[in-house]
Design brief:
The complex is a heterodimer of chains A (479) and B (421). By secondary structure, chain A is an alpha+beta fold. Chain A has 12 helices and 23 strands. Chain B is globular, with a radius of gyration of 22 Å. The chains are: A alpha+beta (479), B alpha/beta (421). Chains A and B meet through helix 7, strand 18, helix 9 and strand 23 of A and strand 7, strand 8, helix 3, helix 4 and strand 12 of B.
Chain lengths: 479, 421
């Protein structure tokens, strides 16, 4: 099998490219080292659709952020994933910092961000009563929003699969070579061949790039730690609250999530470990301390989980997109750090156009642009929900109590393509286990459903693929 | 909409006892809604013995104890629905519930008893740093896997928290072939019952490290180890870290009453217990909505859950029969000098049976020796009892003669406190 394009990496960028490229004729495959899409940077970030005032005018980051942000609402309707335009505030605590705020404002105008306004501290507190008294001004960006990064990535992946894209999971790329005019993508499961390759490997993108090019790229994993609070705390603020950006990024934010939780974070620490997604005592402490500078009375007793993600920070702090000059047919989609999630829709379009042009592909007539997400029964009217349960009683059986997730939703998550194969795969698709008890009650029930649907014994099932088995054996087998 | 006099949310020990008591008090038209596959609640996974010493004067396992009440429910013909989740409780007591068989439906009973029990505090709520691999379970989840499904969650185990389920699981995992290396407890005292420390740790040579906590979790896919450190003044002490190789971390760090439905209805919740504030009749801030068992406050012994829930059942029955709220004044109960909370939180003298008693349950906020429990009406002591030892892990109970309160018609409040003996 020779593919027209192999996309390495099933994060939000890789799946966005896959979805846009599936508009064209051509055989497409996404190769992902984990058991599911959305397992790296895409699963652990701020879940923000930035308005686009942070990036330097003229940069790819600026252009694609604004473009991505402008299409997000339409895309979320087309592909049925959770997105809400709630607006963001960048707080300024010191008159001396006002020039920085004004700089962001002008930069935003230059980048084409609409609706920007500088508000007084009192105006801010009228909008957000919990903002601290020392806030003297803020940049208001009404076009900013929040998105479910899992939902968005699954939507892109499912729509790509619906239009013919193939997905290979648990497959790690180990080498890249040119032979017979094709890219030989060496993996731990054999060699795959393709005319073009898109390198969307997140923090590993520089390593892959450097295998094929003599112009090296350098990416540093930049860790961000977060705390997530219970839905009871979700209305503590109603907009995304940033602080004036520092050297390592946009500072710690306080934001509601699309599912009604409250999210605090991230820190920004450059690390050497490409798998270093552990949280640290200092990091979590810093999140709480710094978030408290923006917002008073944070109900930190309602933290339900904490996590860390790695941003793929390229030395030049710019997206690296397009064909590598000394590696024909090899396209980078690298250095995708914030505003990567916001830019993903535009990144997908840009790279798909370039790859299609390179291959001389034409648009498919039978492309299906829409996708329906897993039904959320809680969003239905009483009558509609009654009808749903009548038609399919599995929607009458609650599995996850905290998030009220039914068996019907979980079965749908497992039966989709690509579908959930792990506990985390079910969790990210349905929210089962994402609530306040964090899977204490539902994990055994979800495992039963996975085991039954996939025909995999309980002791082979994993939390998140690989060696993350949940059950060690049966009672007394080691006595 | 179907109409019931009484709907009990939860078919665990509290719900069962409440239903039996309400039926025995003459309520015919009642219904138990249970979200799990069978009645009995958490008792079904508690296969160790030690239940029922107080209620039945014999030592039963959890399922046996539940069985006694399930039998009564069945003998009395009390209807119940299984696999039925209550999705919403409104302030007007409208219940929205759902099951595979019945679909989505609404009920509007005259009275509701909240008996939803509690859940365990998960890893995230403890904000333990480190990786998030497989192999981190709350003790209760592990208990369900081992005792109800026959699966061993891991082989080399560290337990954080010395709550009773953690202690029970230290023994249980050992008996199933796992190696339990240590139980660490953040506080300088155990949160569990003394008898469980002796029978589940000491008898198996499992060390209990007080004032210790987990400061790091290693392992990217499955837990590979954890780091413990000594704690002083609530903070880990640098230089005291000890590493343990393990594939499993069990958490027994506290139970949280499950009051999402109560909150949705607007029931006032105590920030101390995380359960509803209730009066002497175990009635919440919404008239006709009662609460009992672990949803009200976390108990140590199921016997007291049954006792409390039976009282709630009788009080609900009385309200349904008379259809009238008691009028008159309400005496708040203040907590002082070592007493963290009381259940109930207030007493209406008019609602008391003059020849009966009222039960006050409470916990203390630390370990105390040679104290007296004192109850004041206004500033006048009306009850006093010597206690050689009091600990947060052991609930205290005071039976107060109603007469003692009724004889003080002018006081505005009651106080429960500890004094030096």
């Amino acid at each position: 099998m020779i593919y027209d394009t192999i996309i390495i990496g099933g994060g939000v960028s890789g799946t966005a490219v896959a979805r846009e490229l599936s508009r064209y004729t051509g055989k497409l495959c996404v190769v992902e080292r984990c058991e599911d899409v959305c397992c790296g940077t895409s699963k652990a970030n701020s879940a923000i659709v930035h308005a686009g005032f942070d990036a330097k005018p003229g940069s790819l980051m600026a252009k694609l952020n604004v473009a991505g942000s402008k299409t997000m609402a339409a895309l979320s309707r087309e592909l049925d994933f959770p997105y809400r335009q709630i607006g963001s505030l960048v707080l300024c605590w010191d008159e001396a910092q006002r020039p920085q705020l004004e700089h962001l404002y002008r930069q935003g105008l230059e980048n084409g961000v609409e609706g920007l306004e500088i508000l007084s501290g009192d105006q801010v507190r009228a909008m957000e009563p919990h903002v601290t008294q020392n806030c003297v001004a803020a940049l208001w960006a009404p076009s900013a929003g929040i998105v479910c990064p899992f939902g968005m990535t699954f939507a892109l992946a499912e729509n790509a699969a619906r239009n013919g894209a193939e997905f290979r999971f648990d497959t790690t790329v180990t080498g890249l070579a040119r032979a017979d005019g094709l890219w030989q993508v060496q993996t731990d499961r054999g060699i795959l061949q393709a005319r073009t390759v898109v390198n969307a490997a997140g923090v590993y993108a520089a390593r892959l790039h450097n295998l094929v090019s003599s112009h090296p790229l350098h990416i540093t994993p930049r860790k961000g730690e977060y705390c997530l609070l219970d839905k009871q705390a979700g209305s503590h603020v109603s907009h995304t609250i940033f602080q004036l950006p520092g050297k390592l990024g946009k500072g710690v934010l306080v934001t509601p999530t699309v599912h009604g939780n409250l999210l605090l974070g991230p820190t920004a620490t450059d690390i050497e470990d490409f798998e270093g997604v552990n949280t640290t005592a200092q990091g979590l402490e810093a999140v709480l301390r710094t978030a408290a500078l923006s917002v008073d009375n944070l109900p930190t007793r309602q933290i339900i989980t904490s996590f860390a993600g790695l941003r793929a920070h390229e030395d030049g702090h710019e997206f690296v997109l397009g064909e590598v000059s000394d590696a024909p047919g090899f396209f980078d989609c690298a250095g995708i750090e914030s505003p990567g999630l916001s830019s993903a829709p535009a990144i997908g379009i840009l790279l798909a156009e370039q790859v299609a042009a390179k291959l001389g592909l034409s648009r498919r007539a039978d492309f299906v642009p829409t996708r329906k997400g897993i039904v959320n029964p809680a969003a239905l009217s009483f009558k509609a929900r009654q009808a749903l349960v009548r038609d399919n009683p599995a929607y009458g059986q609650i599995i996850c109590r905290c998030e009220s997730v039914t068996e019907g939703e979980i079965l749908d998550a497992i039966r989709r393509t690509p579908g959930a194969r792990s506990l985390d795969g079910v969790k990210r698709r349905t929210r089962a286990g994402m609530g306040r008890c964090q899977g204490g009650f539902c994990a055994p029930r979800v495992l039963e459903l996975l085991s039954r649907e996939l025909g995999v014994p309980m002791d082979q099932l994993t939390k998140a693929g690989g060696g993350s088995r949940l059950i060690a054996g049966t009672n007394k087998d080691s006595v | 909409m179907q109409n019931y006099d009484l709907v009990i949310i939860g078919g665990g020990p509290a719900g069962l006892a409440a239903a039996v008591a309400a039926r025995n008090a003459g309520i015919e038209n009642l219904l138990i809604l249970e979200r799990d596959r069978e009645l009995g609640g958490i008792l079904n996974q508690c296969i160790h013995n030690g239940f029922g010493l107080h209620t039945f004067r014999e030592e039963l396992t959890g399922p046996e104890y539940a069985g006694r009440f399930i039998e009564q429910v069945q003998t009395l013909g009390i209807p119940y629905k299984l696999n039925t989740m209550v999705l919403d409780l409104a302030a007007d007591k409208t219940i929205t519930a759902m099951s595979r068989e019945d679909g989505l439906f609404r009920l509007q009973p005259k009275a509701v008893i909240l008996a939803m029990g509690c859940r365990e505090r998960p890893r995230g709520a403890l904000n333990i740093p480190g990786y998030r691999p497989a192999g981190i379970y709350t003790a209760g989840t592990a208990q369900r896997l081992v005792n109800m499904e026959g699966f061993l969650p891991g082989r080399k185990v560290v337990i954080l928290g010395s709550g009773d389920i953690g202690l029970i699981m230290a023994r249980r995992m050992t008996l199933e072939g796992a190696q339990v290396q240590v139980v660490a407890e953040l506080m300088p005292y155990s949160g569990g019952l003394k008898r469980n420390i002796v029978q589940c740790l000491d008898d198996f040579g499992i060390p209990l490290k007080l004032s210790h906590t987990v400061v790091d979790i290693q392992g990217r896919e499955r837990v590979e180890g954890i780091t413990l450190a000594r704690v002083e003044n609530g903070k880990p002490v640098p230089g005291t870290e000890e590493h343990y190789d393990c594939d499993t971390l069990l958490l027994s760090c506290g139970l949280i009453p499950e009051n999402e439905l109560s909150r949705a209805a607007g029931v006032a919740i105590s920030p101390v217990t995380n359960g509803p504030t209730v009066n002497e009749s175990l009635e919440t801030s919404i008239p006709g909505v009662f609460a009992a068992g672990n949803v009200l406050h976390v108990h140590d012994l199921v016997d007291y859950v049954s006792e409390e829930a039976a009282a709630a059942g009788r009080h609900a029955a009385a309200l349904i029969r008379t259809g009238q709220q008691v009028s008159g004044r309400t005496l708040p109960i203040r907590c002082r000098d070592g007493v963290r909370y009381t259940v109930p939180t207030s007493i209406r003298p008019e609602a008391l049976d003059p020849d009966g008693t009222v039960t006050l349950r409470f916990r203390v906020d630390g370990v105390y020796r040679d104290k007296r429990i004192v109850v004041l009406a206004g500033s006048q002591p009306i009850f006093s009892r010597k206690r050689p030892v009091l600990a947060p892990g052991e609930m205290e109970t005071v039976q107060l003669k109603s007469r003692l309160i009724l004889d003080c018609p002018d006081v505005g409040e009651l106080t429960v406190k500890l004094e030096d003996a």
